[in-house]
Amino acid sequence: GARRPRAAMRTEISTAAAFVTRLLRAAGGIGEEQLRCFRECLQEALREHYKHHWFPLVPSKGSGYRCIRINHKMDPLIGKAAGMIGLSHEKLFQLLPSELTLWVDPFEVSYRIGEDGSICVLYESPHPGGKPTKPLESRTSCKEEWRTGRSSPSKNYNMMTVSS
Fold first, then answer.
1. Cys staple from 59: which of 44, 106, 113, 116, with CB 3.0 to 4.6 Å?
2. Where residue 144 falls among pLDDT bands split at 50, 70, 90?
3. Gyration radius (Cα) of the chain, Å
4. 35-56 pLDDT, tens per residue?
């Protein structure tokens, strides 16, 4: 039959879910069976959430919508999956980084821990057309969005330029 776009999301979604599961496992105290259940619930939640927001031809489109964030508020999708294995939001905050951003886009999954942390790519695959739709700047559109207005240029940088 025709290849549904949903099948194409599988790798990206499983990469993202496995990553969050790995963070929970590293924190300790959660059984493997619970972790497996958590991962499956999270994958299911992500699939539902992304179903109509996945644009392989325009990978950055909808990036903000697909972004998973823990920022003093628990991401609802992670919270929902954790609820299935009896983990409260309070417990999650103890187990997971308090500042985590995970971008799940077609052909790329990346994350950042801490507001000023560096962005690490978990999964990357070439675009099926061989040529990316746009040069690099399109890849960072979602990431940049979060950054603007956060960081002001450092003071010593200004001092250096004003050497007259």
1. 106
2. very low
3. 18
4. 999 999 999 999 999 999 999 9
Strand partners, 101: 69, 112
Order of strands, sheet of 108-113, starting from the edge strand that comes earlier in the sequence: 68-71, 99-105, 108-113, 120-124
Residue 95: both structure tokens together: 């187990």
**CA–CA distance, 113 with 115 (Å, rounded to integer):** 7
- Domains of the chain, residue spans: 5-124
Q: 32-50 and 76-84 helices cross at what angle (nearest 10)?
A: 140
H-run or E-run covering 92? helix 89-95
Phi-psi label, residue 3: left if phi above 0, alpha if psi -120 to 50, beta otherwise: beta
Q: Is 124 helix (H, G, I), strand (E, B) or coil?
A: strand
Give the residue carrying structure tokens 């004003």: 162
The fold for domain 5-124 equals Actin; Chain A, domain 4 (3.90.640)
Q: β-strand 108-113 against 68-71: which pairing, if any?
A: unpaired
